[in-house]
Amino acid sequence: MITTVETALVIDDDALMREFIVETLRRNGIAVTETSNGLDAKRMLEERQFDMAFIDLKMPGLDGMQILKFMKTSHIGTLPVIITAFGTVEKAVEAMRNGAYDFLMKPFSPEQVEIIVNRAKDWAGLQAQNTYLKEELGWILPHGRQMVGQSASICKLMKDVKQVAASNSTVLVTGESGTGKELVALAIHSLSERSSQPFIRMNCAAVPDALMDSELFGHEKGSFTSAVTRRIGRFELAHHGTLLLDEISEMNVGVQAKLLRVLQEHEFERVGGSNTIHTDCRLIATTNRNLKEQVDKGAFRQDLYYRLNVVPIVAPPLRDRPEDIPLLVKAFIQRFSQNRGKNAPVISLSDEAMAGLQRYPWPGNVRELENLIERLCVMEQGTEVGIEKLPMDGHSLPAAVAAESDGPSDAMFSIPDIEHRTILRALKATGGNRRRSAELLGISIRTLRNKLNLYRATSRMPEDI
After folding, report:
1. Which domains are assigned to the chain?
2. What is the enclosing helix (H) or strand (E) of 448?
3. Range 215-231 average pLDDT
4. pTM here?
5. Chain Cα centroid distance, residue 365
């Protein structure tokens, strides 16, 4: 399957016609190989990868129909365009049934060739985007979702999003895990002039370092052992649209240098390729870390930090906007009530339960609240949910709230201490299973591993975990 249109093979025994097609394609920036007979064409198709092939239907020896059938049985992904003379329309129709992408009826103009090429480019782009969406496990664009709240912090966030969306500037969205940084990025894209173009996401923490270049910039066939076909990277997929780099603090320094070049020059090369590709996409980066501290530690490039931090936006933690919790609960109940079945009543929370939710510190932020409401919509049989039915991190809500408010210790106000206790509780609740703990906490396995390494280095890791 092709994902771009950059190369073409022209097969025609008529030298003038062949030269005409070759010149038209080259004027459109396509690298062209030509041949006058079907046997040479068959050998070339076996040895090299072409994005398109323009094939004359009637040639001595191996004709166009035979080449087409060979391509189909050999599963060659090149898009074939059949060239036919007037009076052989039936043959053209037969060719289309045998896998031809399109056909040109002689005589034809350069504009007709360009129309077919542009149509093929659009088709290839859609195929690349479809492949990306299939590979992006678990990721569904949250259409219909919205930022909910009336607090001062969320109103400021919404105002900033609207203002930033009108520009093309790079945006850095910071905030704790679960605060909705991806939703902020999607809102910026949806309100921008690029809203009709692709919104492409890549979680930097989920991509191994060895594959980061290929994921971002793509690769050519044969550029490394497992590169059995050309792959389009995220920057090409996001052309004219928006590229979200989630958890950008997890990107290694080597790739950071290449990313800096793209932000400065708006161009790059695929892995194993020599052609420079120009890109026009808006970049939004998110992180739950303090990038300035990462710069000071040498873990993040200072020049890239300043390139990303053109427009900083902070997603506020849920504990700082408890007045928004009733609105969020209502929105989540409406969304998840369909999971209760047709005749099941819609649940509601008692006043005491709602007050308890507003007192809880929410280390997992909005994601933790969302997961809780979904669980209640699925599991609760009654209509009203009391405070005693709200399990928080393996404990009842009153116990969880009390644990955070017991005694006058300064540690209860320390975010790192709250984070430390929450991570240890998650590990105990899952029997030490790191992947499950990361899912409960709403963070990546790499982030959890970094936290645990820090706790070991500072002797804050219990021996029983």
Report:
1. 7-133 (3.40.50.2300), 152-314 (3.40.50.300), 318-406 (1.10.8.60), 413-465 (1.10.10.60)
2. helix 445-457
3. 86
4. 0.63
5. 22
